[in-house]
Amino acid sequence: MAIILGIESSCDETSASICIDGEIKSNIIAGQAIHSKYGGVVPELASRAHQQNIIPTVDQAIQQAKITKNDIDAVAFTRGPGLLGSLLVGTSFAKSFALAREIPLIEVNHMQAHILAHFIDDPKPNFPFLCLTVSGGHTQIVLVNGYFEMELLGQTLDDAAGEAFDKTAKILTLPYPGGPLIDKYAQLGDPNAFSLPEPQIADLNFSFSGLKTAILYLVQAKIKEDPQFLERHLNDICASVQSRIVSILLNKLKKAAKQTGVKEVAIAGGVSANSGLRNALVEMGEEYKWRVFIPKFEYCTDNAAMIAIAGYQKYLRQDFVGQDITPLARMHI
């Protein structure tokens, strides 16, 4: 039997999870409401909140799994990518816990963990499969040939899809975090109400900076014509923005599937919780005869269950690191 403690602290969620022989027994997530009044994550405040949250979060995860800290065989933690201050808290705790218990330490790449979240529950994809990984900081298409054999086929050249949602929410004067609110209002609006451009990038890379600018100019022009524009047309502008972001993502994914011939397709990351993206992917999967994999909502956003499941696979390979390990704010897949 292998019992893994997973620790996630890459941004503004402190999370701990217990995995026993590949089965997630607990997944505790502590959010940080303090960032809402600043309209985005403040790194220094995030790291302070992680220090306050990490011990009670780990305790709760252990209790919910009905084990004791003495039962844990290894500690897996997010090494990167992420905010350095936040990563330092999780890394330091994991190193201290492992040192005190004299158990192995396992580093986990946050982006690989998002992809491996698909191995928490059934059905699980077969190798190889394509994964569209979309979050506030990353937008990538990855060819997954094995648990830790991943080839990056395309990524954003500037802003991530999640950032496009969040910046649009700011333009629309919606509170932080705005991405889920855009999703909510979009379900009530007309996705064809406003025309927005799709970047013409020839390969499998993405670009969202031009779209953000187009949204800003559109809203500014409409407000100049009608000061009550946002109040009158919020649902329609949200629907139009969401529709365009989703089409950009899925058109590239369709192109990747055609180039590789892979018929198993997955999404991961915080933006994979977006209902418009999930529904559109299911429809595209039916059209192109793909096997589509979409994680549960709790495994889309940053969480320690994905760290624990990745750590479990590394434990099976005896892939451990020493106490000299340090976090990496920038870490490639």
From TrEMBL:
InterPro entries: ATPase_NBD, Gcp-like_dom, KAE1/TsaD, TsaD. It catalyses: L-threonylcarbamoyladenylate + adenosine(37) in tRNA = N(6)-L-threonylcarbamoyladenosine(37) in tRNA + AMP + H(+). Residues 24-308 form the Gcp-like domain. Its cofactor is Fe(2+). It is found in: Cytoplasm. It comes from the Bacteria. Its main location: cytoplasm. One of its GO terms (cellular component) is cytoplasm. Binds 1 Fe(2+) ion per subunit. One of its GO terms (biological process) is tRNA threonylcarbamoyladenosine modification. One of its GO terms (molecular function) is tRNA N(6)-L-threonylcarbamoyladenine synthase activity. Fe cation binds at H110, H114, D302. Keywords: Acyltransferase, Cytoplasm, Iron, Metal-binding, Transferase, tRNA processing. Substrate binds at T133, V134, S135, G136, G137, D166, G179, D183, N274. Its EC number is 2.3.1.234. It holds the Pfam family TsaD. SUPFAM superfamilies: Actin-like ATPase domain (SSF53067). Belongs to the KAE1 / TsaD family. Required for the formation of a threonylcarbamoyl group on adenosine at position 37 (t(6)A37) in tRNAs that read codons beginning with adenine. Is involved in the transfer of the threonylcarbamoyl moiety of threonylcarbamoyl-AMP (TC-AMP) to the N6 group of A37, together with TsaE and TsaB. TsaD likely plays a direct catalytic role in this reaction. This is tRNA N6-adenosine threonylcarbamoyltransferase. It comes from Sphingobacterium alkalisoli. The gene is tsaD.
